[in-house]
Design goal:
The protein is built from 13 helices and 5 strands. The chain is of the alpha/beta class and 346 residues long. It has 2 domains: 90 residues, no CATH class; 213 residues, no CATH class. Strand 2 and strand 3 form a beta hairpin. One of its GO terms (molecular function) is nuclease activity. InterPro entries: HARBI1-like (IPR045249), HARBI1_animal (IPR026103), HARBI1_dom (IPR027806). This is Putative nuclease HARBI1.
Length: 346
């Protein structure tokens, strides 16, 4: 004889049918300040996100008491910007912690599906020239297509005895290689790397590395942890001439944009801020959450919000220079950098 299985609704058990659950939550009933304080974004942008993700969220919640896309988006934003399923967030919108978790999962998947729409490297001549001009205005460094860096986001230790996620500072993390433009807009965000990999290993395995092999005009800027390439300009390790010092100063001021951008992302999306704790998820899901926050960063910037309004201001960590073997030197790249210094910084 078949045994019937009852599917229980956590929110119904918690609050009863009369409770103001999220599928009945009315955005018009709360103030703009409330939305900005609780969910980190203004009303217009939240409504834009709801419409952007509506189809995907409805597709994932084909249940008789499905939580509305509005509520799912609010729940996910509440998590991304606070880093916690706990305390007042569930009460604020009227759902259980279990439902909060499902909403975050659904919205994260929907945002990841939009990554290619919002994070893209336009390499047509007009985009290239615009990039050159915008970066040139920062500190006078010519020919810049983007600034490159690799950052770490703390996660809980994986269940397996996998040391590949232990980074050089001794904690578990996922690594993310970022490239951004002069405005802080992300051009590339590869978030699925174990934290134990060296920055150079990540670069050599990345899509950016393959994409820039045939670049004949312009370059990325990377700090001293990266090898000098014809398409990747790095600081002069031991500057001697005034021109080399000027080159390094302009390089540092321009490259700092990617550091500022990630600090702003961490500040807005506190789930990524290691000082507040680490992501309580598998490496795969943590990477997805990180990419979802990168998509939100770009979507908000393209909607007119300031990339660096919430930026933290702690001093930057100075990277150690790459110890390069003589046989790994790129002589053509060294000659190109010398010509660049002579022409633009002498």
């Amino acid at each position: 004889m078949a045994v019937p299985i009852a599917i229980l609704d956590c929110d119904l058990l918690l609050h009863g049918r009369g409770h103001k659950t999220l599928d009945r939550f009315d955005l018009d009933s709360v103030s703009d300040d409330f939305l900005l304080t609780q969910f980190g974004f203004p009303r217009d942008f939240i409504l834009y996100l709801v419409e952007l993700l509506r189809e995907a969220l409805c597709r994932r919640t084909q249940r008789s008491r499905a939580i509305s896309p509005e509520v799912q988006v609010l729940a996910a934003l509440g998590f991304y910007t606070s880093g916690s399923f706990q305390t007042s967030m569930g009460d604020t919108i009227g759902i259980s912690q279990a439902s909060m978790s499902r909403c975050v999962c659904n919205v994260t998947k929907a945002l990841v599906e939009k990554a290619r729409q919002f994070i893209t490297f336009n390499r047509d001549p007009s985009s290239r020239e615009q990039s050159f001009q915008e970066f040139l205005r920062v500190a006078g460094f010519p020919g810049v297509l983007g600034v490159l860096d690799c950052v770490q986001v703390a996660i809980k230790a994986p269940n397996s005895e996998d040391s590949s996620y232990v980074n050089k500072k001794g904690f578990h993390s996922v690594a993310c290689q970022l490239v951004c433009d002069a405005r802080g807009l992300l051009l590339s965000a590869e978030t699925n790397w174990p934290g134990g990999l060296q920055d150079t290993e990540i670069l050599e395995r990345s899509a950016v590395y393959k994409q820039f092999q045939d670049t004949e005009e312009g370059w990325l800027l990377g700090d001293g942890r990266y090898p000098l390439k014809k398409w990747l300009m790095t600081p002069v390790d031991c500057p001697e001439s005034p021109a080399e010092f000027q080159y390094n100063l302009a390089h540092t001021a321009t490259h700092e944009i990617v550091d500022r951008t990630f600090r702003a992302i961490q500040t807005r999306f506190r789930c990524l801020d290691g000082t507040k704790g680490y992501l309580q998820y598998s490496p795969e899901r943590s990477s997805s959450i990180l990419l979802a926050c990168c998509v939100l960063h770009n979507a908000s910037l393209q909607s007119g919000l300031d990339a660096w309004t919430l930026e933290r201001t702690e001093p930057l960590e100075q990277p150690k220079s790459l110890k390069q073997r003589p046989e790994d030197r790129d002589i053509e790249a060294e000659d190109l950098r010398k010509q660049l210094i002579l022409k633009h910084f002498s």
